[in-house]
Amino acid sequence: MAMISKDLDYIGKSLKDWEKSVLSVVEIIRSKKDKLTLENDSQVISKSLFRTVLPDDLKSRTYIGVDGGLIKKEYHGIDIILTRAVAVKFDFKDGKLYDTQYIPGTFNEPKISVINRPMYESDFSIKASLFRINEEISIAVESLSRSPDILLLDGSVVPHPQSRPKSDSELYTDYLEIVRLYKTLYEKSIKKNIYLAGVVEDSRSTTCVDLIKSCSTELSINISILETVKDTHFLFYLLKQGEMSFVFRYSKKPDQNLVLKDIGQNGNNIYSFYMKTVEFDRPIRIDFLSETNDTDIVLNCAKDIASYVLAISTHNTTYGCPSVIIEADLRAKLNEQEISFVENSIFSSVGNLPGIFDLRRNRRPL
């Protein structure tokens, strides 16, 4: 253990030095923010590096948050997927929460899918993801009838690229149904004048950092350290509580992004920004749909969404996510007991058939 202790000491010192280097560069960038010409990059919409957000007063505001839970299990001959999607509606009056509703209901049974055909493990993961997304976006579309001011998804407002199977895959039909649901969600939210945004809690993107690097050559500082950091790490230092980053296009070339191309015209109107809602948590990324790509409309849309989100995200100094999303997550979450119930029910019905034998890795003798 003496050798690993030395390695850990070295790692600890390296991490401290790394953090100090990131902070020193961020401090210089913040002090010289007016010299950054962000507008020279076509992906950047705002001119300023960051700005202060004024939280909504919640005098009369309705939020809906949507999230989905997922649990899956492989067996010898079949695979089982359970998912549950929930929309939570928060109504505020005079700065206080006065009513909460759940869609489709307060207590919702999970949906189940049993796959009894051979499937690669990677395809099974995509199948499970598409099953969950289908339930989530279906609930989101349904909840628009409640006429919220803003609808928040847990995660982006576009499907993750990893959820897109190849066009010759048997899962591609499932994916096309997802695309159809997203298109419906976009069209109805625009028609009803409802803001649509997605809250990405743990973004691994470097888009924001890359844009700043490309626009900061005039600062005459060594920014090579920024090659090693993600957006949320960098912005944790750059942004103060209640500040948002510049607004940028979700994709620099939406016409070359396969998912955005599948979505169609509204794929060109997806934008993003980061916001630090509380002092001791990392910034969240917010992706949103604008009804048009007109700069003034996009920036006004971002300003309102930031104000709405900040107003319900400051309840915990170390966890800065919107409360309506947290509640949706709690209601949608699935646990092992629920899939055990399904498993036991199947056993009771058909017996311990070979097709539902547990995998060997789950039943090794102690």
Query: Quick one: how many beta strands?
Result: 11
The percentage helix is 25-40%
Oligomer: single chain
Strand content: 15-25%
Tally of individual helices: 9
> Tell me about the biggest sheet?
11 strands, mixed
Briefly note the structural class of the backbone: alpha+beta
Q: What gap, in angstroms, lies between the N and C termini?
A: 27 Å
Q: Averaged pLDDT, please?
A: 90
Can you tell me the overall shape? globular
Short description:
By secondary structure, this protein is of the alpha+beta class. The protein has helices spanning 2-31, 121-143, 172-191, 207-215, 231-238, 258-263, 295-311, 323-332, 336-350; strands at residues 50-52, 60-74, 79-93, 96-103, 111-115, 150-154, 195-200, 243-245, 248-249, 270-276, 284-289.
Features:
366 residues, 11-stranded mixed beta sheet, 20% strand
Provide an overview of this structure.
- The model has no long low-confidence stretch (mean pLDDT 90).
- The protein has one domain (1-337).
- The longest helix has 30 residues, at 2-31.
- It has helices at 2-31, 121-143, 172-191, 207-215, 231-238, 258-263, 295-311, 323-332, 336-350, and strands at residues 50-52, 60-74, 79-93, 96-103, 111-115, 150-154, 195-200, 243-245, 248-249, 270-276, 284-289.
- The protein contains nine helices and eleven strands.
- It starts with a helix and ends in a 16-residue tail after the last helix.
- Strands 1, 2, 3, 4, 5, 6, 7, 8, 9, 10 and 11 form an eleven-stranded mixed beta sheet that branches.
